[in-house]
Amino acid sequence: MVFDLYNFNALQLHQKATFLDKQSVFLINLYENEFSYSLYAHKGYYLEVIIDSESRNLIDIVAFKDWDRLDKYLDNILLVGELFE
């Protein structure tokens, strides 16, 4: 099943987690304060997984396209390949 950004955000958390596991590409993990963030790519938008680092509980999975939310990941992504050499 294909979900656009808005339909994905309307899903319940357990539905988002199932979708994420089967249909998205992992990009990077970040750790800030008491949370860990995992960034995934999926057909035209990004998915941010937010986990409480202490309890290891899943807090939310948010679909987004905006650069403001993506910005915190950009300094930590290493781009490799012919295009970047």
Radius of gyration: 14 Å
Largest sheet: 4 strands, antiparallel
By CATH, the topology is Viral Envelope Glycoprotein, domain 2
Structural class: alpha+beta
Number of strands: 4
Poorly predicted regions are: 80-85
Query: Widest sheet: strand order?
Result: 1-2-3-4
The overall number of domains is 1
Count of helices?
Answer: 3
Oligomer: single chain
**Level-1 CATH class name:** Alpha Beta
Head-to-tail CA distance between termini: 38 Å
CATH architecture: 2-Layer Sandwich
Helix content: 25-40%
Describe this structure as you would to a colleague.
The chain is an alpha+beta fold and 85 residues long. It has one domain (5-84): Viral Envelope Glycoprotein, domain 2 (2-Layer Sandwich), CATH 3.30.67. Helices cover 29% and strands 36% of the residues. It is built from 3 helices and 4 strands; from the N terminus they run ααββββα. The protein has helices at 5-10, 13-23, 67-74; strands at 25-32, 35-42, 45-52, 58-64. The protein has a 4-stranded antiparallel beta sheet with strand order 1-2-3-4, sandwiched between helices. β3 (45-52) and β4 (58-64) form a beta hairpin.
List the helices and strands and how they pair.
Layout: H1 5-10, H2 13-23, E1 25-32, E2 35-42, E3 45-52, E4 58-64, H3 67-74
Antiparallel strand pairs: 1-2, 2-3, 3-4
What does this entry show, briefly?
The chain is of the alpha+beta class and 85 residues long. The chain has helices at 5-10, 13-23, 67-74; strands spanning 25-32, 35-42, 45-52, 58-64. Helices cover 29% and strands 36% of the residues.
